[in-house]
Amino acid sequence: MILGMVEILAEALVFAEKSGLGTDKLKEYIELFFPNSPISAYCGRMLSGDYAPVPPKRPGFQIDLARKDCKHAMDIAAASGTRLEVTEIMDKHLARAKEIGGDNMDIRYQKFGSR
Predict the structure, then answer these.
(1) Sign of the four-CA dihedral 53, 96, 40, 66
(2) How many CA atoms lie within 13 A of 24 on its CB side?
(3) Cβ distance 23 to 13 under 8 Å?
(4) Contact 75, 87 (CB under 8 A)
(5) Which end of the chain has fewer CB atoms within 10 angstroms, the N or the C?
(6) Torsions phi, psi of 81, nearest 5?
(7) What is the predicted pLDDT for the residue at 57?
(8) For 85, how many CA atoms within 13 A lie in the half-sphere containing its CB?
(9) Domain boundaries, the chain
(10) What is the per-residue pLDDT across 83-100, written as a single tens digit (0 to 9) for each?
(11) Using alpha carbons only, what angle is made at residue 96 by residues 61 and 51, rounded to the nearest 5 degrees?
(12) Residue 72, Cβ neighbours under 10 Å: how many?
């Protein structure tokens, strides 16, 4: 569920940035409608630009671990005859973000994978 929220939020931030709406306006909207919520907190973190801590410090939720969770969820879904399409997209975007940013990235960097 958290990975799906991050995917949807990343898409909204990229849309706001590229459409000219502006990420500041989207952040205001999110904080107004979802105050003190994980989506509001992740929005601020994604806009902070702090995606890769300096080693030996580790990211809050490393891309490789998020991809492992995506794969596990997709395997369970497949075994039960269903698909998790948002998770599939998230996994693709995480793979792209890792290509761009390397190994020590937080899932917040996924925003760049969805561009």
Answers:
(1) negative
(2) 1
(3) yes
(4) no
(5) N
(6) 80, 25
(7) 72
(8) 0
(9) 2-113
(10) 999 999 999 988 988 888
(11) 40
(12) 11
Inter-axis angle of helices 2-19 and 85-101, nearest 10: 70
Token look-up 């998770």 returns 87
DSSP state of 81: T
- Domain 2-113 in CATH 3.30.70.20? The answer is no
Residue type, 9: L
Q: What angle do CA 96, 99, 101 make, to 5 degrees?
A: 105
What average pLDDT does range 91-111 have in this prediction? 79
Q: What is the DSSP letter of 83?
A: -
Q: How many whole angstroms separate alpha carbon 95 and alpha carbon 76?
A: 20
The amino acid present at 87, given as its one-letter code, is T
Cβ neighbours, 10 Å, residue 78: 11
Structure tokens that stand for 112 in this block? 């760049």
Radius of gyration of the chain (CA): 14
**Tens-place pLDDT, residues 16-73:** 999 999 999 999 999 999 999 999 988 998 888 776 767 777 777 888 889 999 999 9
Tokens 């879904």 map to which residue? Answer: 77
